[in-house]
């Protein structure tokens, strides 16, 4: 098993602390609850349109598994075909390399202003910071991302990045940053952003997009957006760069509809996203629009390590965000509490692998393993099992708290002996009954306080089933006879 | 059929009435029940807490204890899902144990699943009835054994006279999650308060909840808020209704 490397990052707040802050924010809680439920309900309502959704999901899973099994071959095919179409292909192993490659492309082409479509890969490498530091003017053009750029915040959701903000928050922000009169009216706010963004599109000489899918057989990069901003970014500027995580490749064009159907439904409960843009190289003679230069940056950044590990299945992810919307923990916390690029269940699995198993050690632990994510996932990633694998590794790394480690050693002995189990629980009950009232304990100490800080703990039954069995057997036999 | 009862540790120690009801229900349906007395816990607490070796030790013992069972029935979807999903998973590198784990997984059923899908019980002759209002919380681990909320609600609707009220966010986790509830008490606490609020909103007198973990979490939180509602496992309702229906 290739265990991903431990990398050092800036010190962040303890997860429990950031979670506590999120939980204390009632407004955030209400907004997250409403928004995630709306998105989850939308997904559930539209999935049956696929007939038997499970069949389509299993097909998507099989395509992704096959692709991951042959990733080297399909990446080579994709790169060859992008080049054949007249594009330039770059491979970046690390975030640093990806940033350097993109800054370099911009520098060489004499770029001043850049428009950017939404891309989680670019969030991974904090591309905007790098471009701005290199002196370029960068504008996010997805409405949500634009709002976040104005607010200097990070996305809290991978599909709907401003899920944590209310329209009033945005009205206030636009009032401060764009100088418009305060309003909470979405169409007015959208029109204000549109006015700014149209100017950006008009003057931009470089566009940066992510990549939802890279079709190997044709060398086509596909992005889906709802606002058309992605298409502006990919068609108008004279230089276009697509940044793609290397797991995003799919073999054939005929595989694409399978994913387009699933992605839109799972992400936003739509039949299909409003704009599905296919980029196949730069402008050819006679083309109406398109860039003069097209670059594809294929980024590894820890993915090949995941590919060779027991976490490979996580690379099937198409970043639809359905697991976030379904997750009861995400619904309570929102995305920022995770302090990671990818929040929610998929974030709990891949963040430790991409950004450090020690730094993000709390994430895989902070799940009730309810399985709502697995049920929602369009490519059937068994996220609960992957979380268990993380937990197993944490204990193998000997980083589980002492009390749990030795507690379970004792538990293991007790559970393997009828005698200890029976008498141990008897003494346990005796011990708890000292403080119990009406069969309930309202205060426990040590780790148990985590329970009783929020709810009462029941006292065990006076006579457990195993001590009743002989009598029950007798009674049942008599009832049967009568 | 000879049915081996897996009471589960929570059922045995905290809610012994539930396995007792299971015995009576299955007996009335004409099955012989045995209770392998060496059984303890399926091992889930260790698995979920990341202690795979401790889990495997306990799981291996359970596999041995139930090796000769014809069919195993448990009133907990959670424990059932561990046997079905994670016993084979845990021993995937050990062919002998893996085969035994797969065999156990293949003959282990959760109570409602056993009654509805395996035995396909016709409840009409039993005249099931219940007077009062009830709501139902879907326990997460029923997902792991392919039991949808509708599978359980189907059985609930067999009770005449029951005023069934659908719970908002019925499928949202109550926040138990074993040691998660203790390690991340604040998050778990917020989750269970959400659940309690939804239950309150139904105005029902009874909460039907088929997993001990969810029940102790939800009812413990109700008590903390001074909100009193009764919780029953559907086995308790069936036992009662079968007894009454029969004597009628």
Question: How would you describe what is shown here?
Answer:
The complex is a heterodimer of chains A (482) and B (248). Chain A has 482 residues and is an alpha/beta fold. Chain A has helices at 15-24, 26-46, 53-69, 71-84, 95-108, 120-124, 127-133, 143-151, 167-177, 186-203, 229-235, 256-268, 303-307, 322-326, 328-333, 344-355, 362-365, 372-376, 383-396, 402-415, 418-433, 449-452, 465-481, and strands at 88-92, 113-116, 137-140, 206-209, 213-215, 220-225, 239-245, 249-250, 275-279, 293-299, 440-441, 457-458. Among the domains of chain A are: 52-301, Rossmann fold (3-Layer(aba) Sandwich); 407-481, no CATH class. In chain A, 51% of the residues lie in helices and 11% in strands. Chain A has a 6-stranded parallel β-sheet, sandwiched between helices. A 4-stranded mixed β-sheet of chain A has the order 8-5-6-9. In chain A, a hairpin with a 4-residue loop joins strand 5 (213-215) and strand 6. In chain A, helix 2 packs across helix 12 (256-268), helix 9 (167-177) packs across helix 10 (186-203) and helix 16 (344-355) packs parallel to helix 19. The longest helix of chain A has 21 residues, at 26-46. Chain A is elongated. Chain A starts with 14 loop residues before the first helix and ends with a helix. The model of chain A is unreliable at 1-11 (pLDDT under 50). A 4-stranded parallel β-sheet of chain B has the order 2-1-3-4, sandwiched between helices. Chain B has a 4-stranded parallel β-sheet with strand order 6-5-7-8. Chain B is of the alpha/beta class and 248 residues long. The two termini of chain B are 27 Å apart. Chain B has 2 domains: 2-118, no CATH class; 127-245, Rossmann fold, CATH 3.40.50. The interface between A and B is large, with 68 and 72 residues.
């Amino acid at each position: 098993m290739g265990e991903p490397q431990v990398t050092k990052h800036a010190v962040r707040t303890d997860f429990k602390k950031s979670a506590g802050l999120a939980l204390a924010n009632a407004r955030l809680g209400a907004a997250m609850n409403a928004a995630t439920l709306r998105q989850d309900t939308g997904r559930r309502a539209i999935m049956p349109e696929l007939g038997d959704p499970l069949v389509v999901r299993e097909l998507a899973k099989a395509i992704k598994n096959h692709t991951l099994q042959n990733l080297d071959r399909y990446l080579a095919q994709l790169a060859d075909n992008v080049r054949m179409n007249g594009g330039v292909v770059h491979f970046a192993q690390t975030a640093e390399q990806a940033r350097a490659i993109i800054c370099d492309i911009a520098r060489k082409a004499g770029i001043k202003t850049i428009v950017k479509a939404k891309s989680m890969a670019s969030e991974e490498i904090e591309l905007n910071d790098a471009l701005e530091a290199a002196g370029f003017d960068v504008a996010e053009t997805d409405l949500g991302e634009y709002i976040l750029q104005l607010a200097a915040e990070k996305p809290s959701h991978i599909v709907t990045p401003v899920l944590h903000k209310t329209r009033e928050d945005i009205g206030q922000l636009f009032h401060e940053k764009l100088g418009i009169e305060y309003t909470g009216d979405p169409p007015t706010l959208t029109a204000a952003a549109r006015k700014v963004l149209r100017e950006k599109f008009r003057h931009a000489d470089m566009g940066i997009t992510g990549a939802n899918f890279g079709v190997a057989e044709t060398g086509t990069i596909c992005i889906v957006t709802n606002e058309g901003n992605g298409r502006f970014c990919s068609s108008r500027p004279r230089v276009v760069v697509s940044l793609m995580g290397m797991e995003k490749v799919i073999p054939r064009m005929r595989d694409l509809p399978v994913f387009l159907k699933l992605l839109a439904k799972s992400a936003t409960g739509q039949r299909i996203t409003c704009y599905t843009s296919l980029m196949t190289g730069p402008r050819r003679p006679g083309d109406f629009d398109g860039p003069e230069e097209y670059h594809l940056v294929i980024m590894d950044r820890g993915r090949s390590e995941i590919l060779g590990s027991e976490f490979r299945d996580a690379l099937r992810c198409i970043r639809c965000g359905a697991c976030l919307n379904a997750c009861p923990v995400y619904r309570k916390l929102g995305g920022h509490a995770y302090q990671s690029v990818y929040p929610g269940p998929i974030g709990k699995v891949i963040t430790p692998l991409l950004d450090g198993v020690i730094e993000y050690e709390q994430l895989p632990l902070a799940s009730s393993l309810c399985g709502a994510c697995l049920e929602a996932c369009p490519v059937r990633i068994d996220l609960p099992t992957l979380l268990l694998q993380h937990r197993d590794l944490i204990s193998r790394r000997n980083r589980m708290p002492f009390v749990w480690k030795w507690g379970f050693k004792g538990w293991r002995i007790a559970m393997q002996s009828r005698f200890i189990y029976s008498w141990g629980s008897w003494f346990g009950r005796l011990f708890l009954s000292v403080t119990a009232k009406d069969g309930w304990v309202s205060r426990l100490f040590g780790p148990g306080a985590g329970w009783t800080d929020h709810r009462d703990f029941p006292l065990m039954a006076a006579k457990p089933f195993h001590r009743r069995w002989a009598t029950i057997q007798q009674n049942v036999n008599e009832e049967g006879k009568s | 059929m000879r049915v081996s009862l897996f009471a589960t540790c929570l059922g045995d120690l905290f809610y012994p009435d539930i396995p007792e009801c299971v015995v009576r229900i299955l007996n009335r349906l004409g099955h012989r029940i045995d209770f392998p007395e060496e059984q303890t816990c399926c091992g889930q607490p260790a698995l979920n807490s990341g202690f795979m070796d401790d889990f495997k030790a306990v799981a291996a013992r359970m596999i041995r204890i139930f090796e000769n069972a014809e069919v195993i029935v448990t009133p907990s979807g959670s424990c059932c899902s561990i046997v079905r999903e994670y016993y084979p998973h845990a021993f995937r590198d050990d062919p002998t144990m893996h085969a035994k784990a797969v065999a156990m997984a293949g003959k282990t059923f959760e109570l409602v699943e056993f009654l509805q899908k395996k035995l396909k019980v016709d409840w009409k002759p039993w005249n099931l009835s219940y007077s009062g209002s009830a709501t139902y919380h879907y326990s997460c681990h029923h997902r792991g054994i392919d039991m949808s909320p509708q599978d359980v609600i189907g059985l609930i609707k067999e009770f005449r006279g029951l005023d069934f009220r659908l719970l908002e966010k019925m499928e949202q986790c109550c926040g138990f999650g074993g040691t998660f509830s203790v390690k991340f008490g604040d998050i778990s606490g917020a989750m269970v308060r959400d659940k309690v609020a939804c239950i309150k909103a139904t105005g029902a007198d009874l909460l039907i909840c088929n997993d001990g973990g969810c029940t102790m979490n939800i009812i413990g939180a109700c008590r903390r808020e001074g909100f009193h509602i009764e919780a029953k496992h559907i086995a308790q309702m069936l036992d009662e209704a079968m007894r009454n229906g029969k004597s009628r």
